[in-house]
Amino acid sequence: MQAEGLIKDRGRLEALSKYEILDSAPEPAFNDLTALAAQFCETPISLLTFVDDRRQWVKAKTGTTLTETACEVSFCAHAISEPFMVVTDARLDERFSSSPLVTSSPHIRFYAGSPLLSREGHPLGTLCVMDWVPREINFEQRQMLQVLCREAMALLEMRRDVNQTRRRNERQRAELRELSQRLGTQSAEHRQIEARLRRRERQLEDAQRMAHLGSWEWDVTLNKVTWSAELYRIFGFQPKQFKPGYDAYLERIHPDDRERSKSSIEGALRDHKSFASTERILRSDGATRLLATQGEVISDQHDRPIRMVGCCQDITEQKEFEHKLETSVSLLNATLESTTDGIIVVDRKGVLVRYNHQFLKMWHLTPGMVELRDDKRTLALVLEQLKSPEAFLAKVNELYAHPEVESFDVLEFKDGRIFERYSKPQRLRENVVGRVWSFRDVTDRYRALKTLRRSEERYRSLVIATSQIVWTTNAQGEVTDDIPTWREFTGQKVHEILGFGWLNAIHPKDRQKTLEIWSHALTTVSLYETEYRLLRADGEWRHMRVRGVPILDKDQGIREWVGFCYDISERKHAEQILVRERDFSETIINSLPGIFYLLDETGLNLRWNKNLETVTEYSGSEISEMHASDFVPEEERAMLKERMQKVFSSGQAEVELTLVTKTGKRLPYYCTGRLVNFDGKPCLVGMGIDISTRTQAEQRANKLNEDLDRRVRERTAELKTSNKELEAFSYTVSHDLRAPIRAIRGFVEAIDEDCRERLDQEDRIYLDRIKQAGERMTHLIEDLLTYSRIGRLAPNLRSVPLNEIVREIADNFTLRLRAIGGRLLIDRDLPQVRADQTLLGQVFANLFENAINYRKKDLPLEMQVTAQRDNGRVIVRVIDNGIGISSQHYEKIFEVFQRLHKSDEIPGTGIGLASVKKSIESLGGRIWVESEVDKGSTFLLELPSA
Predict the structure, then answer these.
(1) Which regions in the chain score pLDDT beneath 70?
(2) Angle at CA 490, nearest 5°, toward 487 and 495?
(3) Interior angle at CA 695, CA 692 and CA 701, nearest 5
(4) Which pLDDT does position 205 carry in this prediction?
(5) Cα–Cα distance between 754 and 324 in angstroms, integer?
(6) Relative to the CA of 945, which of 153, 341, 793, 799 has its CA 20 to 30 Å away?
């Protein structure tokens, strides 16, 4: 039946009138249902409505003052004709796009509702949720909304039963008064009637005391059992299909729980006490559900049990959710304990609220010290271990005074240990509620680096001699002889270099800094090292790296300086990209520094992270059938077995071993193991960190003396290939970032799936922001990979029809332009160009996307593509009427990660226009922009004509 016909249906309207609900006063029980629906579905608005032949009337509401609406504009008037109605975006649904509920206050965009069905199956109204923004509803939220609908109908049915019982009692009271007047002195019959009245009143009180759960009543003397409609639904029966009774009820109890349930009921009858039990039941469809039952015995004046009343609640999903939450918490705690970093969490006042045992081990503390909550004593124990306790306290106080600040520093201990200390604020929504501190023992790494630096300093004079510009000065820094390589690079004459004339080739803004660094090196007799911009002979300023070594005489005085300069302009640009990328992703990468694994007692893999698959090159299905010893060489398996046994016997162990990949590569790893109880079984959980860097540093320090001559000879060749290696390194770093990002998103999605219903609103928002940050990082990596690919392969240059390419890309933006009310105009006869069709398509897609993102919000977007030939070249113009660009930013917008607006204002990664520029240049063309703020932009592309 269509919605309009159903609204006017006489049978439905008669059923609605029997409930006497329209225009009734607010009732807390119904308001609680709408509040629960809004909270579970994460929406600002929830309504419980009833629909008659002309209006939708609101019985209960959350988040709005709406009381009623006409059926013509009502969402619920449509929802009563469907099993479950969802409108993800009302502006795109022709039924509601013109409704005043959508076009004006309250501006509804999302709607989801389930009909309220009477006992006879008539739809009376809906329980619905609404939002001001388009969105989706997941399966669990849909299911919970339907469950709450059934609870609302149970309340409505009980309300009708109570009203009917009240009227019946009122009639009986009237009959009693009339009978009393007629009988007069017949007091015995009068007392009997009063007893019947009190019995009826007790029945009414029992019905009012019942909650919206399934309820039952057992007349013990007559052995008659009565079930509520909800209890029939819990057991999966229709009232006509099943006759309730004590024996029939016991038959529906799971055989393993039947005797226990029977003992609880009979014990309550025997002792005249209430009872509560939990048992599994067998539904009519064969499914097994978990039921919580409560009952109460009612006795007569002789203390003999005459009735038993109670209620039942299906708690199957609740128990499943609790089990999932316990499992997730167990895994998260195991992960926290498996890391080699010491971690603590404090509140805004610096009071310790959480820590892992690695923290206690690193700081030589015991759980008893920390549990005493004597923060002053604990702090004293920490400070007495440090070389500089005052600096430690100053940093802590500084961060507590500025709770928004992140921090990194290095701590040195009296016993020679060195820790890296990280600190980040803990946020709840936009508020800082505490701070997380993590400590990493880097003693071995710092010692290896110190050894390496000593070796490099020993031979730095020879290494420097392989650079592009080699120079010498006297002890004061004055040039006294010709420097051919300097003259060739700068174009200066010999007389222009002499003395301090070489400073004139340095950028004016860098000269003062250069002199200050030179003076410091001269005064301290130390290495002279700096960077400055140097004017090349062709007039271009180039970034140069400069190093100078003091040559000492026998009295340890400076005899002269020998140094070099080499051009780092290209590397400087690439380093800026990598530094921004590193700063952005460092906190995420540090959260999962290596591989993660969970093993049973036999060594089989139960859980692992994506990084394990990436490092070992095995697929997930292969790892699931592998033993831990399968990842190490034969000669290390006995050691691994002994370490694993130590974990299960003493609780923890650590080991350095070789990880063998599927293709035979051998990787050094430092692995930890902790004993945990997972799903009731002892398991080993741990993490492994690639220690190739440390091993390579040790090998390099030992090998540097032996290989010095070879390194000097190869230095020149290495410099020639440095740019190519830097490009490959950029690609590798970007590519390898995917693995930890996928792992983080996987863990967040697991928490979201298993725990979301247990989190409050703030926690859900916080979890969503982590997911959004992971998605932004994924887009950033994808864009960076795309940027790194451009130019690595030679473009497939051929004659390309510009008209065909532009219109094909424009078709992909048709729906988006229509949604924002914009339009794109393309000249009819665009010429042919010589280009790579794929690269050129990506260029126009980026430019169209850029125009949409930077459009004016109060003006429809207008875009136009034109082209003209010019001396064997084609000039293409992409014109828009957007927000425009200031002339001072014309060059900046084509640089990687250069954005003029925050990402929460205008989406993007800052790589799009850089990719466009790189693509156009690889095609033998160039791109530039002409723009004015608030008047739009024109991007001009010059390409070879076909």
Answers:
(1) 1-3, 180, 183-212, 325, 328-329, 332, 373, 452-467, 578-593, 695, 697-698, 701-702, 704-743, 745-747, 766, 769, 771-794, 896-910
(2) 50
(3) 135
(4) 39
(5) 6
(6) 793
In 10 A of CB 529, how many CB atoms? 13
Give CA angle at 729 (727, 730), nearest 5°: 65
Task: Report angle CA 813, 819, 822 to the nearest 5 degrees.
Answer: 70
Q: Using CA atoms, how far apart are residues 197 and 204, in angstroms rounded to an integer?
A: 11
Three-class SS state of 445 = helix
Integer Cα distance of 84 and 82 in angstroms:
5
Q: Which segments of 617-681 does DSSP mark as H helices, in order?
A: 620-624, 637-650
Contact 23, 49 (CB under 8 A): no
What residue type is assigned to position 937 of the chain? Answer: S
Q: Which residues pair with 411 in a beta bridge?
A: 419
> Which structure tokens are listed for 210?
């019942």
Spatial contact of 626 and 618, defined as CB atoms under 8 Å apart: yes
Return all residues near 155 (Cβ < 8 A) that are at least 6 apart: 29, 30, 33, 212
Q: Exposed e or buried b for every residue in 249-266, given b needs 16+ CB within 10 A?
A: beebbeeebeeebbebbe
Mind listing the pLDDT tens digit for each residue in 387-402?
998 988 888 888 888 8
- Residue located via tokens 């009858």: 269
Cite the beta strand spans of 415-515 per DSSP E: 418-428, 431-441, 469-474
Is beta strand 352-355 parallel, antiparallel or unpaired with respect to 342-347?
antiparallel
154 vs 314: CA distance, rounded Å:
14
> Which residue bears the tokens 């042919």?
832
pLDDT digits (tens, 9 = 90+) for 259-305: 998 898 888 888 888 888 899 999 888 889 998 888 988 888 888 88
| DSSP reduced 3-state for 682 | strand
Q: Are the C-beta atoms of residues 480 and 500 closer than 8 Å to each other?
A: no
Q: In the beta sheet, which residues pair with residue 34?
A: none
Residue 193: phi and psi, rounded to 5, are -65, -40
- Start-to-end CA span in the chain (Å): 64
Do residues 442 and 418 make contact, with C-beta atoms less than 8 angstroms apart? yes
Bridge pairing between strands 823-826 and 862-870: parallel
**DSSP codes of every residue in 870-888:** ETTEEEEEEEE-SS---GG
What are the angstrom distances between the C-alpha of 317 and each of 113, 143, 144, 429, 680?
Answer: 21, 11, 10, 29, 21
* Diameter of the chain measured on Cα atoms: 142
Q: Could you give the CA distance from residue 342 to residue 443 in angstroms, rounded to a whole number? A: 14
Yes or no: say if 398 and 406 are a contact pair by the CB < 8 Å rule.
no
Pair 75, 49: CB distance under 8 Å: no
Alpha helices in 313-388 (DSSP H): 316-338, 357-362, 367-371, 375-383
CA distance 911 to 918: 10
List the beta strands (DSSP E) in 577-665.
Answer: 595-599, 605-608, 652-660
Cα–Cα distance, 781 to 730 (Å, whole number): 11
Residue 134 · residue 109 · CB < 8 Å: yes
DSSP state of 895: S
Calpha distance 150→325 (Å, rounded): 26
The answer to whether residues 348 and 403 touch, using CB atoms and an 8 Å cutoff, is yes
Task: Specify the DSSP element, H or E, that contains 175.
Answer: helix 139-183
| Residue 688 to residue 675: CA distance in whole angstroms | 15
- Identify residue 181 by its one-letter amino acid code: Q
The alpha carbons of the chain give a radius of gyration, in whole angstroms, of 39
Cβ–Cβ < 8 Å for 250, 263: no
Structure tokens at 563: 């140094």
**What angle do helix axes 912-922 and 761-789 make, rounded to 10 degrees?**
10
Phi, psi torsion values for 486, nearest 5 degrees: -65, -45
Strand residues in 703-861 grouped as ranges (E)? 798-801, 823-826, 832-835
Residue reference for tokens 């604020």? 425
Please, is 786 exposed, middle or buried when counting C-beta atoms within 10 Å of its C-beta (0-12, 13-18, 19+)? middle
